[in-house]
Amino acid sequence: MASLIDRILGLFSLDLGIDLGTANTLVAVRNQGIVINEPSWVAVDRKTRQVLAVGAEAKEMVGRTPNRIVAIRPLRDGVISDFEITESMLDNFIKKAHSRALFNIPRPRVVIGVPSGVTEVEKRAVYDAAKSAGAREVFLIEEPMAAAIGAGLPVTEAHGSLVVDIGGGTTEVAVFSLGGIVVSRSIRVAGDEMDDDIINYARSKYNLLIGERMAEKVKIAIGSAFPLPEEKTMSLRGRNLVTGLPESIEVSSIEVREALSTSVNTIVETIRSTLDETPPELVADLMETGICMAGGGSMLQGLVERVADETNIHTWLAEDALTCVARGAEVVLEKLDDLSRVLVGLDRTSSSRSGSGFGNRS
Ligand code: ADP
Ligand code: MG
Predict the structure, then answer these.
(1) For a substitution probing ligand 1, which of 216, 218, 267, 323 has the most ligand atoms within 8 Å of its CB?
(2) How far apart are CA 111 and CA 220, in angstroms?
(3) Please, what is the average pLDDT of the chain?
(4) What are the residue ranges of helices labelled H in 56-152?
(5) 249 confidence band (pLDDT: 50, 70, 90)
(6) C or N: which end of the chain has fewer Cβ atoms within 10 Å?
(7) 18, 19, 20, 22: which to mutate for ligand 1, most atoms within 8 A of CB?
């Protein structure tokens, strides 16, 4: 229960809901909606470790940096793989969101999403990063829970609901009831893996080396998980590995679907095995509410149809699938007292520092 002083401070502070995604970081301000939506990229000077650019500006540099600069995705696989860089990124975004305030207002309270099933050490790292970026209080929420709330699912009711959140680094499947997660799965197959599939396909079938950005473009433009009403083609530009020369090759959506099939099958299998483990009463509820898909990866063409086809359960794409987690975190901020049970606790004795070996900061 927040103290009176906290409540009064809360009236003036810009409290923030943050989706620290592996591909995109979003920040929502309580009662104002999303104010920051940028790729989770940081450009760093290799020698001095100085941060040179963050977000879209850093992503623009990918594959184009001179030797001295390196562009990093500090959360690539769904957990904080580079703590210091994550902290600088968060710090930068929080300050940017906070600078919108006209007055010198109190430091923000922050609700921040963490992937489900992360370790104590990883939770601690996110908590510490938000704290040292200037948060007054930090609350953690599991990302699928935030996604479900953002998508408007009745997670606190005595009725089952299911969310599939496919991001860049991880796919999370979770079944909710009474404000808790009943069954969940998290796998490291998601949008990035699909990009890799396309890169590998181009290399093995055409000897063509393409970049990550090219692969992602192809996936979004003509990638699919189910036959399309009208199959399409697109040109892949890269370097021929045999001649070493630039080359452009036409690929069809049928080929790209084939390239993506292993990743897509893994995701579908994960949803099926989560359903297998779900208690029968909740499965009966799901037949009614359906499966809600969120996250950028869920926007792959035909994926919603494919999941519906393989599970026999009505499946739908959340409205604004890329922003569900941030909007869910904002909803939680607005109703912290009512929704406190959806938050995850932090074991106060754990320390991220002992686990990951970065230096002391004061
Ligand atoms: P995260 O939560 O990990 O930051 P996001 O939910 O922001 O991830 O989703 C990013 C992923 O979604 C990327 O892999 C991106 O390529 C993919 N993506 C975005 N739009 C589409 C689309 N229309 N079709 C397929 N994949 C998409
Ligand atoms: Mg996400």
Answers:
(1) 216
(2) 30
(3) 89
(4) 56-60, 83-98, 120-132, 143-150
(5) very high
(6) C
(7) 22
